[in-house]
Known about the structure:
The protein is built from 6 helices and 17 strands. The chain has helices spanning 12-23, 57-70, 131-134, 150-159, 179-186, 281-301, and strands at residues 3-8, 28-32, 74-77, 80-84, 89-93, 96-105, 109-111, 127-128, 142-146, 165-169, 191-194, 197-203, 210-215, 221-225, 228-231, 235-237, 267-269.
Amino acid sequence: MDYDIIIVGGGPAGLTAALYALRANRSVLIIEKNTFGGQMTYSPKIENYPGFLSMSGNELADKLVDQVLSHSAEVEIAEVTGIKDGNIKTVITDSGSYTAGAVIIATGARHRLLGLENENELIGHGISFCAVCDGAFCNGKTVAVVGGGNSALQEAVLLTENASKVYIIQDLDYLTGEKRLAEQLRSNDKAEIITGSKVVEIKGKNELEGIVIRNSHSGEMKTIAVDGLFIAIGLVPQNEAFADIIKLNEKGYAASDESCKTIADGIFAAGDCREKSVRQITTAVADGACAALAACEYLEQRRI
């Protein structure tokens, strides 16, 4: 056995789990395929993390990484493609396999895309997912927000502070977010809500130039020139590689109890990839602690 615990994912849940496991004198490997810190690295200002008035997501990620490294955590940059269950778990990656007594899945979730041509290429060149991060770049400009839930409406409200015009485009005939947010936007001269319409084309090669929307009832097409496009249509959990070993709900989130246990003994799920009602940095950190303690208890019971 290579390690006591392998943690898949280096966001706040995974890094917190590593810290708790290491402090319990367990050997730990963290496997991360992209960037340590997860979705919070997109946030230039975090003001709701206890103990800090304000800091960037990168700053918090750096602090967490430094902390686990100081406790002798090992890290690998690789993509996990599967887990082979057994008394000893085998975690399979695109660059090799590793074994452990327990595994904590903390893969988080990524932003859901529209699935249109040029979309990936224009991320960072007009397309964004975070008004807090990029709203300041829209000063005096025209932008659009795609989505009608709370996240989309909150983004739109924030964008009206700097942008000259904010379109809110929802494919349903109504907004699904809080009535208070909707009324706030309806009373704002800068905001224009367009329901029953879908973005079907993104214009621009090197920089975003505009979008084309189609009315779901009449089929009428309309081109809107925008400088920024903020996509807020939900998240996609990163659990595809584990669908054969743990239970996923209809949206792909891992089913687990409050101790983060899944249906597979010795495999735990923590953070945004887990089925839960609130997804915040603080709840991810809480999950990480719970998963690590549960994993340590699992190993002790089996004398691993």
